[in-house]
Structure formats: C-alpha cells, structure tokens
Amino acid sequence: MKKFKIPSVPSTTNKCIRFPNDVIDDVEKAIEGKNCTFTAFVVEAVRVALENIKDEK
Question: What's CA 31's distance to the chain center, in Å?
C-alpha cells in the first residue's frame, strides 16, 4: 500500500494581466464541464509554451 503524504502547495504570486475577451471566451469554453480552473489552464499553457521555447534552442 502506498504511504499517504500531505501534499505541499507551491508558493504563488498574484499577477494581474489582461486577456482579450475572445481569448477568455475560448478558454472558458475549453474548460467547461471539466475539473479545471481558468488559472490552472493558463499556467499549464504557459508551462508548455516555455518548454517549447527551450526545445527550440
């Protein structure tokens, strides 16, 4: 049996950014009915973009 470990929450910083309304609408449609928040979607998208940039170098 796997031992339970209390997960740690990574530290975060609040950043205020502006999105075009059509992008907000598209993200909200993409996550509708899924267990995902707008923030989680954007964070994952940024992580993938950063990884792609690293791979291009």
Answer: 11
Structure tokens at 55: 């791979």
The number of beta carbons lying within 10 Å of the beta carbon of residue 41 is: 15
pLDDT in tens, 8-51: 878 999 999 999 999 999 999 999 999 999 999 999 999 999 99
Query: At a CB cut-off of 8 Å and minimum separation 6, what does 31 contact?
Result: 37, 38, 41
Please say whether the beta carbons of 44 and 30 come within 8 A.
no
Output b/e per residue, 8-39; b: 16+ Cβ within 10 A: eeeeeeeeeeeeeeeeeeebeeeeeeeeeeee
Chain Cα centroid distance, residue 15: 13
